[in-house]
Design brief:
This protein is of the alpha+beta class. The chain contains six helices and 26 strands.
Length: about 475
């Protein structure tokens, strides 16, 4: 009797969406799958800020290129000043590896001194703290001047050390008052040294004197005069996976032949009806020499580009270029491969989008085939039939081909691919004739591309 009652109760709880202890369960959303990496490789959703190649994602804190030396896969402090990321971050998981000089220079703060600043404001001290006494909230692993580390986990000078940091930004009012403290957790060489300590005001020598109103800021590495070396720096943006805040999209439309304005007006209605997105737009014609409504690009999370051979003034192009130089995502449709002046297209098409536009074939039908079916951009995307296949030369070596287009006489070309530029995700497709926007599979593919490129969870933003 007990068993039958128990199973009946369990069935009722399941039917009500409750667990056996009566707690409500929500199985409608599943965590995003992430490859954790192996052999010290970063997770698949991490943005690699320094892989030993160059400092292209960094700049001098005073502006201009980062001038630290890069030798044998390491970035070395060389007296040219602090460097910071071009991109701003909110809540993050940060991994970096560092080594102080092998020979102790002096004692205390003069030995192997540097620091990593979250949002350019909150310093986790880097110092040779191996048998090197100094004030406790100024040694390695300290939130400088605020909290000393729980223990001293330092290795000998010259040995590689690791920081793994979880940072949550303070909640700040419009007048920079902290409404809710942030938090900081740090593992030094795998040992917990800061355990969810509160973060309120910037630490000493920060680049910015007040907390960020928008909750973001660049990562900064300090030049304190010691030849500290860095390698293997990556970050995961924690607020992206769980965030339900609107995804800010800016549309640039200006391709008359393919009726980009009517197609994208229809598509933005589709997005607004189904997802928590905020959309601004600049509507122009082919060859536009001015781009109205350009200011929202500065705050856009993603650009959706479907325009042709614009001849914009330098000041306007700098706003657009700043978006991709920061590694912020772009989804390009059809004529985006030649969206700007020819000299700019050499950069935008080849380097940013990873393509190689070579013209187009005739008006014949195009059979589109998925060639990377496990890629998130192609999730749930079936067969697409289009027309006017574009010719694409050899793609960038690191572009990932997603779809190919096939026409009569066994001719085929790449159609859709993904690429990374300055750490940001880019997706381009040469599809985009008006009829494509009536195709559910094309619309799903573009929508997938937007959420994948922006590192945002489609389900979390579904209305």
């Amino acid at each position: 009797m007990w068993q039958s009652k128990h199973y009946a109760t369990l069935a009722l709880l399941i039917g009500l969406g409750l667990s056996s202890n009566g707690i409500a369960q929500d199985n409608s959303q599943h965590p995003t799958a992430v490859d954790p990496g192996s052999n010290n490789a970063p997770p698949s959703d991490a943005l690699v800020l320094f892989d030993g190649t160059d400092l292209s994602l960094w700049q001098s804190s005073g502006g201009g290129p980062a001038k630290w030396a890069v030798r044998s896969g390491k970035a070395v402090v060389n007296g040219t000043g602090n460097i910071m990321t071009k991109r701003k971050f909110g809540d993050v998981q940060l991994h970096l590896e560092w080594a102080t000089p092998k020979k102790g220079e002096d004692d205390g703060q003069s030995r192997g001194n540097s620091g990593v600043y979250l949002q350019g404001r909150y310093e986790v001290q880097i110092l040779d703290s191996y048998r090197n006494p100094t004030y406790s909230d100024g040694q390695a692993g300290a939130l400088y001047g605020h909290f000393p580390p729980l223990v001293n986990a330092s290795r000998k000078p010259g040995k590689w050390q690791t920081y793994d940091i979880i940072f949550h930004a303070p909640a700040v009012s419009d007048d920079s008052e902290v409404n809710k403290p942030g938090s900081l957790t740090v593992w030094h060489n795998g040992v917990l040294v800061q355990d969810h300590v509160p973060v309120k005001t910037p630490t000493r020598a920060a680049s910015f004197g007040k907390p960020a109103v928008d909750g973001t800021g660049p990562l900064m590495l300090q030049d304190h005069g010691s030849a500290v070396r860095y390698r293997n720096i990556w970050v995961r943006e924690l607020d992206r996976h769980r965030s339900t805040k609107p995804l800010n999209i800016h549309i640039i439309s200006g391709s008359n032949e393919y009726e980009s304005e009517s197609s994208l007006e229809q598509y933005q209605r589709y997005l607004k009806e189904r997802f928590n997105v905020s959309i601004t737009a600049s509507w122009v014609e082919d060859g536009a020499e001015d781009l109205p409504g350009i200011d929202p690009i500065r705050k856009a999370d993603l650009l959706l580009v479907f325009t042709r051979r614009m001849k914009l003034p330098k000041q306007q192009m700098e706003i657009i270029e700043d978006h991709w130089q920061q590694g912020k995502p772009i989804v390009g449709i059809r004529t985006a491969s030649h969206a700007f002046r020819r000299d700019t297209n050499q950069i935008f098409d080849h380097k940013v989008l990873g393509g190689n536009y070579q013209g187009h074939y005739g008006d014949e039908p195009v059979e589109v085939r998925n060639v990377a079916g496990d890629h998130p951009v192609l999730d749930g995307v079936g067969e697409i039939t289009s027309k006017k296949l574009y010719k694409a030369g050899k793609l960038a070596e690191d572009s990932v081909l997603l779809q190919t287009g096939h026409i009569e006489d066994n001719r085929s070309d790449p159609v859709t691919w993904a690429h990374h530029y300055n750490g940001g995700r880019m997706v381009y497709t040469s599809l985009g004739v008006p009829a494509d926007f009536e195709d559910d599979d094309f619309v799903r593919m573009i929508t997938n591309a937007i959420f994948w490129a922006a590192h945002r969870d489609r389900q979390a933003l579904t209305k």
